[in-house]
Design goal:
disordered C terminus, two-stranded parallel ribbon, two-stranded antiparallel sheet, 18 helices, mainly alpha
């Protein structure tokens, strides 16, 4: 199984690589496949694949950016770094627009297609809005200050790489077979889609880390710590807002509702205390950037895009303009609530973290499909939650066997 997973992940990832990277990766993969009796050789090969598929391409992308080539660097990364620099100057990106110099070509424009198939180029609406919650960029302030003070240089991908390492560590600490944990890491982090988005600086790994940690704490029945981590996840990216109701349903199946409410009080209060200064500073700016901008209710909202239902309707000419506001929430919310209700019914019979996370993956797919946009990295993130649910199914299976005296509860096999 592991050999199939490695081939499926590695071979497509080499499609856009250079000849030297292609040759080295194929060589490492071949050595790994034939050296099944030599664990140290296999470990070296896996490390070599990580270096050739992830670290070298990311290093080259960072080097190109340092030389002034911005292609291949995500605009969200550029804007987050700008927000971090502004807060150190006592300024607020929710209160002002992003400087045009932050988004050089090709980031300053967007190409959009209308229902009659003609295309237009518009100004990137991200110039006017910063969509992420305050804690997302505030967490990078210390690293930004240290790097800028010491080296007069900073690239947010350094911090994202630390998040990736921490996420791998969470997986590696689990009492599962070495081959399964390796397969998990390759499925999650060395598939061609994750590599593409991660190397250019998209931030899904940040919220994935906090969600995975929260799910692991639920599995260990450390409910209070799980609540803390899910609140942090909600404070760094709105993606976690969609998954949190599923976690709450799971908690309500394990604890009295009053206990659940008490567990959320202090974490939520502290999370709100981080948002409060920005809310006082410019309440309308914060509201428009975080809520109104992605919902499509502003003239400068992000256009309909990706794999959402609205995007398909525009693509097939049923709707004309991707810039208009469409009240899709009247469809989105009922379907999302239906998935939540079905999750509750599933947890009545199978109250497990694996069942909850799998249902959450369905919920997030439904929510995004009926949203204004369902971007390519959102699809990859949805698939990551499905893979995570598979890991918890294995953990629960192992725990069940250990209770029967068949497998030791801790340690790797």
């Amino acid at each position: 199984m592991l050999a199939v997973i490695l081939c499926v992940c590695v071979l497509p990832s080499l499609k856009n690589s250079g000849p030297s990277t292609y040759a080295v990766s194929i060589l490492l993969l071949g050595i790994w496949l034939v050296s099944y009796k030599y664990k140290k050789v296999r470990a070296v090969c896996l490390l070599g694949l990580v270096i050739t598929l992830l670290l070298i391409p990311m290093g080259l992308r960072i080097a190109k950016r340092s030389s002034g080539v911005m292609k291949g660097t995500h605009d969200g990364l550029l804007q987050t770094e700008y927000a971090t620099s502004l807060i150190l100057e006592g300024r607020n990106l929710y209160h002002e627009d992003t400087a045009k110099s932050v988004f050089p070509p090709p980031h300053d424009k967007l190409n959009i297609q209308f229902g009659d198939k003609h295309e237009e180029t518009i100004v990137n609406p991200a110039l006017y809005h910063f969509v992420y919650p305050p804690l997302y960029f505030l967490q990078f302030v210390p690293a930004y200050w240290i790097f800028e003070t010491t080296f007069h240089w900073f690239d947010l991908r350094i911090c994202l790489l630390l998040y990736l390492m921490a996420t791998v560590l969470l997986i590696w600490r689990q009492p599962l077979e070495h081959s399964f944990k390796t397969a998990m890491c390759f499925l999650l982090f060395l598939n061609p889609y994750f590599l593409t988005y991660f190397i250019e600086g998209r931030n899904d790994i940040v919220v994935l880390f906090w969600l995975l940690w929260s799910f692991l704490l639920l599995h260990e029945r450390r409910y209070q710590f799980a609540v803390w981590t899910i609140v942090v996840a909600c404070s760094v990216k709105q993606t976690a807002w969609i998954i949190t109701p599923f976690l709450m349903v799971y908690l309500l199946h394990n604890l009295p509702w009053k206990t659940c409410v008490r567990m959320f009080l202090l974490p939520v209060a502290l999370a709100l205390s981080i948002v409060l200064p920005f809310l006082i500073w410019d309440p309308s700016g914060l509201w428009m950037d975080m809520i109104m901008y992605p919902s499509g209710k502003l003239a400068t909202s992000y256009p309909v895009n990706g794999y959402s239902l609205l995007a398909q309707l525009v693509r097939f000419g049923i709707l004309y303009s991707p810039l208009e506001y469409y009240p899709i929430s009247y469809v989105q919310i009922p379907f999302y609530v239906l998935v939540l209700w079905m999750t509750n019914r599933v947890l009545v019979r199978h109250c497990t973290v694996s069942a909850m996370t799998f249902c959450a993956s369905i919920g997030i797919a439904v929510f995004w499909f009926f949203s204004r946009f369902y971007n390519d990295n959102y699809v990859e993130f949805t698939a990551s939650i499905v893979v995570v649910s598979w890991m918890f199914w294995k953990l629960e299976q192992r725990k069940s066997l250990s209770l029967q005296g068949c497998v030791p509860i801790s340690g790797s096999v």
